[in-house]
């Protein structure tokens, strides 16, 4: 997990599903959150 957080490796779809399953949320919710955070970062100077 740390390697993904540090961007040492790319996350696979399978890993995304495993993380979502462990958290008890749909994978789409994780992707939506990531998109929102990225948009927020892009809008800040």
From TrEMBL:
Protein name from the UniProt record: HTH cro/C1-type domain-containing protein
An MF annotation (GO) of this entry: DNA binding
Native source organism of the sequence: Aquitalea magnusonii
Domain HTH cro/C1-type, chain residue ranges per copy: 3-30
């Amino acid at each position: 997990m740390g390697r993904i957080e540090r961007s040492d490796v790319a996350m696979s779809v399978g890993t995304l599903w495993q993380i979502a399953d462990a958290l008890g949320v749909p994978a789409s919710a994780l992707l939506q959150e990531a998109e929102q955070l990225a948009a927020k970062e892009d809008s800040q100077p």
